[in-house]
Amino acid sequence: GAVVSQHPSRVICKSGTSVKIECRSLDFQATTMFWYRQFPKKSLMLMATSNEGSKATYEQGVEKDKFLINHASLTLSTLTVTSAHPEDSSFYICSAASGTQGTQYFGPGTRLLVL
Amino acid sequence: GQQLNQSPQSMFIQEGEDVSMNCTSSSIFNTWLWYKQDPGEGPVLLIALYKAGELTSNGRLTAQFGITRKDSFLNISASIPSDVGIYFCAGLSNTGNQFYFGTGTSLTVIP
Fold first, then answer.
1. What's the pLDDT band for A20 if we cut at 50, 70, 90?
2. Pairwise CB contact (< 8 Å): B1 & A59
């Protein structure tokens, strides 16, 4: 149980375009989903916390107008990187929290490359 | 946000050896979690700990939630090549929904 999927697994786009990444909890409902960014050989960096039906909470230094998050249902959250630039190239990982104890289950990640 | 202090940063061991890594924090945590991440993949949950003093095993893996609620360790017995990867600890603070990650331990197992 507690499977989280992400789509796409990797994407290459041109500078200036927008990219949408989907995160789905497949076998449980997640009132809270999280979006992380990971640089090579580094730990995960929390970008934002997404609550179903309400606005996302962004971490300090993360531009909410650049990284749009929508959590439309209990099983789906999306991250849209708007007007992507090469410095946005990274590994983006989502997670979904299950149960009252807050255990997070991670998706497989999305590798974004902006040319 | 805050990160947990995880050590060691990296380990190179012979196949068959036991491994131990730990995580400490200056704050109290309600939950400790251990994850393993393979290259290009998302972290996979190994063990979850919800009570101070709790000792939990998952196959060759054993983890403990420290009595002070400020630390946790993960042991891997009789390591095998597929244990290679980066291990992260994570903790849920007792003040709310803040979730913090350790800096990671990179494990290399030499056949």
1. very high
2. yes
Distance CA B12, CA B25 (A): 25
- Beta bridge pairs of residue A50: A33
Q: What distance in Å separates the CA atoms of residue A79 and residue A62, rounded to the nearest whole number? A: 13
DSSP state of A57: E
Q: Which of A54, A46, A50, A59 is closest to A32 using CA atoms?
A: A50
Does residue A40 have a cis bond before it (omega within 30 degrees)?
no
What length does chain B have? 111
Q: Which residues pair with B73 in a beta bridge?
A: B22, B64
More confident residue, B94 or A110: A110
CA-wise closest residue to A33 among A92, A111, A114, A112: A92
3-state secondary structure of B97: coil
Cα–Cα distance, B4 to B105 (Å, whole number)? 12
A74 Cα to chain B: minimum distance (Å): 18
Residue A63 pLDDT more than 90? yes
In this complex, which of A95, A103, A106 lies closest to B31 when CB atoms are compared?
Answer: A103
pLDDT, one tens digit per residue, over B1-57 is: 556 899 999 999 999 999 999 999 988 898 999 999 999 999 999 999 999 999 999
Angle at B105 between CA B101 and CA B108, to 5 degrees: 150
